[in-house]
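Here's what a typical entry looks like (Methenyltetrahydrofolate cyclohydrolase):
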Amino acid sequence: MFHFSIKHIFKFTLTPSRFLVKHSVRAVHKQNNILYGKPIAERILNRCKNECEQFNEQYHRRPKLVAILVGGNESSKLYVRNKQRIAEHVGIGFQTINHLMHIAPSNLIDTINRLNNDDTVDGIILQLPLPLHLVDKTEKFIDAIRSDKDVDGHTTSNYNSYRQTSIPPITIPVVAAVREILLEINEPLQGKDVVIIGRSKYVGTPLALMLSQSTTDSKSSLISGATVTICHRDTHLNNLTWYCKNADIVISAVGRAKVVQHRMIKEGAVVIDVGISKSWTDKTVTSKKVFVGDVDFDEVKRVARWITPVPGGVGPITVACLVSNLLELARQRQKNK
Ligand SMILES: Nc1nc2c(c(=O)[nH]1)N[C@@H](CN(C=O)c1ccc(C(=O)N[C@@H](CCC(=O)O)C(=O)O)cc1)CN2
Ligand SMILES: [Mg+2]
C-alpha cells in the first residue's frame, strides 16, 4: 500500500509528533490532551489513494475536481493550491479557473453551467468568500452547481436532504472533519451538552443538525444525540460564557482569534477549533501574520481534556474529507451513467 509522507502533502508547519507516526499512529493523534488532525487526514487520504486507483482501473479515467476562484484573495489562493496538491497526490485531476474580481454575475453562472455540462468534471468548488459585490448572491451561485457535482455539500438541495434523511449524499467537509475528530475521541456524545459558536449555513448550522440527530447505533452515538446550543453574534457575552462553561464540548467556528478563553471552559471539556483567521505574532517589527484559530490555545489547553490546534487540527482533515467526497461523487456519477 502507498504510504504518504505527511511532510510532502501538508506544506504547513509540522508538529514534532509526525516523527512518531510510523511507530504509533494512535499515540500521535492524541498527544497529552492535543488532538492532531494530520494523522487522521493521512489515514483518510491513504484510503482515497487506493479508491482512486480502483476507480481508474474500473473506468479508465481519473476523477476530476475543478475549483473556481474569483478575485485575488491570498488566503483563498493558498487554500486552493493546498487542495490541488493534495488531490493530485491522491491521483485526482485538478483544475483551477481564475476569474477577475469584477466578473459579471452572468459570466460566473456561465462558468458553472459549462462545468455542470462537462462530463469529465466530477466535482465543482466555488471557493468562498466571494468578493464583496457578489457576496449577497453567494447562495444563487452555489445553487447553480449541479447537486451531483456539489463536492462541498453547500447546495440547498444537499442541505435539505441532510435535514430530511439524516443521510446526506455528501457531508460538508468541515462537518465531516468534526465527525472524524469525535470518532477519534471515541466517547458517546449522546446526552452530552454541546455549544457551537457560529451559526453559518455551511458550518455551525449543519454541525448542529448532525450532532443533535437521534442516534441509531453505538457508532452514531459518538457523533449524535447531543443537546446542542448555537451561540452567535447576538448572544450576550455573559451568556456566551455561561453556555460554554456548562458545556461538555465547545466547538468554535467564527474565525476570530481568542474568542474562546480558558475562563469559559469547564475543566475536562472537549474543545474543537474550527475557526481560522490571520493574526500578528507579536507587536515587534519582526512580527508576521500567521494562521490562528478561535481558541486561546495555550491557556485553554490547561483546562480542556481534548483540544484541537490551529494549524494542524480540523483544517487538514477538512481537505481530506473534500477529496473523499469527490471520489464518492465520481463513483455515483459513473454508476448512474
Ligand atoms: N468552497 C469553499 N470555500 C471555503 C471553504 C470550503 O470548505 N469550501 N472553507 C474555508 C477555506 N478552506 C477551504 O476551502 C480551508 C481553510 C484552511 C484549511 C487548513 O487546512 N488550514 C490549515 C492552516 C493553513 C495553512 O497553513 O495552510 C490548518 O488549519 O492546519 C483548509 C481548508 C473557507 N472557504
Ligand atoms: Mg486546524
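The chain has 13 helices and twelve strands.

More examples are in the samples folder.
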